[in-house]
TrEMBL record:
Signal peptide: none annotated. InterPro entries: Competence_DNA_uptake, RibonucZ/Hydroxyglut_hydro. This is Metallo-beta-lactamase domain-containing protein. It comes from the Bacteria. Gene3D superfamilies: Ribonuclease Z/Hydroxyacylglutathione hydrolase-like.
């Protein structure tokens, strides 16, 4: 069986001959799978599986393991992330519609053909909004995918136009509680396991007025059926009580460690309940009487389910990545208050919250201060994401002189022939972090990537690195 190596440069070059002066046949990203056919001194003759033509690669430019790969999938107006790590495959949100599923089928086609199925260690739904989980329904319905555990924040989604008679809020039962010395309206109804979901779906409360299942019910029906067929192991509600994502809890340098930073329940033991959040325009920053329930702003369904998104921070070698779902201003203030002087949000790469919405808190952005931001959005004109103030603020509060901003929507290219979807890549070997997107005009070219090391020093850093020479030219 041929030996396998992996690209170890931000762009690993495959040459036509055994010399760096030879014609460049292909540029492949860090971590790309390369099959070795010939070993000659300092050089290897390799082929790729599906990343273009093979060639000769210098041994200094390859490694024996792929490291960490993160794909920010262009799912349109939504979020979809895929993380390939030494611990296994992890999915964070599946977008709306079918684009995420189509990408999964394409990327893992060889594994499906050769091994029969793809093993998914963790499927994470940041929160129950359709543009974050609908794409998972097709994955769960396909026998080619097996899921060890589905992680979710526990929040239910009753149909707002067909609420059970005992409810007045589409996320479940509400009660007034005292939380941290202040009266709050609290969501007291959440689910945890597959059996919890099975019991809730059996109530019939998750159908529309016409008797059709909601998208939320379709998801859990698919999960339950896959579980009964032996293709889904467990479901688990995830909060900061868990501290880390099960199966991703080793802090070893060559392992992926996943820290859980949200959501934050009202208490650290017992039943899981969440403070409800108001619309951002209804925030009361400081109440006159914390014990007066009449001062509590009205709860917002969207801000509560978005605001209690699962928040994950990934650690691999020297690098960190933040996934924050659809956090909004009330939620970000809630997180800042909880962590106080601590700052667990600082990272190298941040998946921007809520697709580039205006609903962000500058103080939270200052805590994150990454070297690169990624926004996932689509052409849905009812949202117009990403909006100008979000893009400006994200870049303003990104570190370095050359902040990196990636957008799945901007990376997308549409022609009369087809759509080239705007996939964003992040790759790390623990010491080098690179991000890339495919060039719009790349057909029949050896270098198809716009790639950047993180932190980025500028395209012409090497030319301008001599300070005296730079001043003379200026």
């Amino acid at each position: 069986m041929p030996r396998v190596v992996y690209g170890d440069q931000p762009e690993t070059i495959l040459y036509a001959g055994k010399s760096r002066n030879a014609r460049k046949k292909n540029h492949v990203l860090l971590g790309t799978y390369l099959i070795v056919w010939e070993d000659d001194g300092d050089w290897l003759r390799v082929s790729t599986r599906s990343a273009g033509p093979g060639g000769w690669v210098h041994k200094d430019d390859v490694r024996d393991n792929p490291g960490l790969k993160i794909f920010y999938v262009d799912v349109g107006q939504g979020d979809g992330g895929i993380i390939e790590s030494p611990e296994g495959l992890m999915l964070v949100d599946g977008g709306p519609g079918s684009q995420y599923y189509r990408f999964m089928k394409s990327r893992y086609k060889r594994i499906i053909e050769e091994e029969g199925s793809v093993k998914i260690k963790a499927m994470v739904i940041s929160h129950p909004d359709q543009d974050h989980y609908e794409g998972f329904i097709s994955v769960l319905n396909d026998p080619a995918f097996e899921v060890e555990t589905i992680y979710h924040n526990g929040i239910l989604r009753y149909p707002s136009n067909n609420l059970p008679s005992h409810l007045g809020f589409d996320l479940g039962e509400l009660k007034t509680r005292t939380v941290a010395g202040q009266k709050e309206i609290v969501l007291v109804e959440t689910i945890d396991t597959i059996e919890d979901a099975r019991a809730m779906m059996a109530t019939g409360h998750f159908d529309t007025k016409k008797g059709n299942p909601t998208t939320y019910r379709k998801f859990w029906d698919a999960a339950i059926q896959a579980h009964d067929a032996g293709r889904v192991g467990f479901a688990k509600r995830l909060t900061i009580r868990d501290k880390s994502l099960p199966g991703f809890a080793s802090k070893s340098k060559d392992k992926l460690y996943v820290e859980v930073l949200g959501p934050i329940p009202t208490k650290m033991s017992g039943s899981v309940e969440y403070v409800t959040f108001p619309d951002s325009e209804d925030i009361v920053v400081r109440r006159k009487d914390p014990a007066d329930a009449s001062e509590i702003p009205s709860p917002s369904s969207s801000h509560t389910r978005n605001g209690h998104s699962i928040v994950l921070k990934l650690y691999y070698g020297d690098h960190t990545f933040l996934f924050g779902g659809d956090l909004n201003i009330p939620a970000q203030l809630h997180l800042l208050k909880h962590f106080g002087d601590d700052n667990p949000f600082a990272c190298d790469v941040s998946k921007a919250c809520h697709h580039g919405s205006s609903d962000f808190h500058v103080g939270f952005l200052k805590k994150i201060k990454p070297s690169a931001n990624v926004i996932s959005s689509g052409d849905n004109k009812s949202f117009d994401h990403p909006v100008a103030d979000a893009v400006g603020a994200l870049c303003r509060h990104t570190s370095g002189d050359f902040p990196l901003f990636f957008s799945t929507e901007l990376a997308r290219a549409v022609s009369s022939e087809n759509i080239h979807y705007g996939l964003i890549n992040a790759r790390s070997n623990g010491e080098v972090l690179a991000m890339a997107q495919m060039k719009e005009q790349h057909k029949n070219k050896p270098d198809i990537w716009d790639s950047f090391t993180v932190p980025w020093k500028g395209r012409f850093h090497e030319v301008l690195k001599d300070e005296e020479e730079t001043e003379r030219l200026a």
